[in-house]
Amino acid sequence: MITAIVFVKADVARIPEVAEQIADLDGVSEVYSVTGHIDLIAMVRVRTHDDVASVVADRLNKVPGVQSTETHIAFRTYSQHDLEAAFSLGTQA
Question: What residue ranges in 1-79 does DSSP mark as E strands?
Fold first, then answer.
């Protein structure tokens, strides 16, 4: 499983509609509206790098109101469960 984090700059007047359309795309697991220099963060979870390209370049970038994207591929996932286990190493229960 490949996870890509996609930063989306969108037309400010259309952020809710853009977010909903992106969330409806196959391969997009969730979309967050955020503060800062970007407007939305889309989480893409797919099987191959070609699938990332298909979701981002072929579909997400073509959603009306998307102005630009920046895609980051995750190397490794650290879940809350993993972090708790790491910090509890060596402690007595």
Answer: 2-10, 28-33, 40-46, 66-73
Rounded to an integer, what distance in angstroms lies between the CA atom of residue 47 and that of residue 61? Answer: 20
Prediction pTM value? 0.83
Please state, in angstroms and as integers, the Cα–Cα distance from residue 37 to each residue in 6, 31, 85, following that order.
13, 16, 34
Range with lowest mean pLDDT among 12-21, 60-69, 72-81? 72-81
Specify the DSSP class assigned to residue 77: -
Per-residue pLDDT tens over the stretch 21-57: 999 999 999 999 999 999 999 999 999 999 999 999 9
**Domains of the chain (ranges, CATH numbers):** 2-87 (3.30.70.920)
CB 29 within 8 A of CB 55: no
